[in-house]
Amino acid sequence: MSSLEVTIGNLALRNPTMLASGVMDETAGSLLRVARAGAGAVVTKSIGSEPRKGYPGPTLVELDDGYINAMGLPNPGIEAFAAEMREARSCLVPVIGSIFASSPKEFSFLASKMQDYGAAAIELNLSCPHAKGYGMEIGVDPETVFTVVREVKSACSIPVFAKLTPNTHRLLEVAKAVEAAGGDAIVAINTVKALAISAEIRRPILSNKGGGLSGPAIKPIGLRCVYDLHADVNIPIVGVGGVENWRDAVEYIMAGASAVQVGSGVGRAGLEVFESICTGMQAFMEREGFNSVSHMVGVAHE
Ligand code: RRO
What we know:
Shape: globular
CATH superfamily: Aldolase class I
Radius of gyration: 18 Å
Number of strands: 16
Strand order of the largest sheet: 3-4-7-8-9-10-15-16
Strand content: 15-25%
Bound molecules: ligand RRO
């Protein structure tokens, strides 16, 4: 029997699938449903210091091969999120607290709150493509990223993951900064900067105009980033971007990911996506003679 168990840093997962931040993850109830559906871990919506409404609608456009979103970091704020985390802790699987902030000090404050709330790990959002003062505005500068990760690492004892943006030519430098600062894993990738226009309305569709593209359209971009990262950094990588079946997950693992996250795939394939990825991957591993997921990590480089 092939094993689907993996460890990322010192975080043990029953299988290599996680719910990506931003999907079904703002309440304990929805996180619990995703855990029951078979995910190996769940990541919360990115939470900031204060409540935020996000951008006015429309905030999402559905395309044939993905979505473009500009939600604008809507979240209840770290104080109110305590109640959701208290309930989500009864989850069968690790709950990873995603946070966004505009300074290293604010990131460490939020990380220690998430740790107090019982998060099993922290995911730093260094990559939202459309929020002034947050996300990729911070995450494209290796020095700033180094300082953020180092300060968060000294403020908490749980593993710290950094979610990076593909919207830069400095991805490898940023990833090396995460590693040098003691980061436990890299999560790649967040959404790709994109735009949708309505011919009839003659304007961009989203209220924010620009947004972030996700889903199958970005899988080759995610694969390329994970492949390059695996060649250059020595901490685990979590692959995200267009994963919606076992084959997508295996491709990311062969590129160098130790686990994958599923975001748009939940919207497109339903909650069954986690179980079907795991069943398909298990059958593939048995057919191909892989005893564990770790034996598949990075084999595309050999
Ligand atoms: O909330 C958003 O608009 C958003 C976030 Br925080 C993110 O990290 N990535 C994205 O595509 N949208």
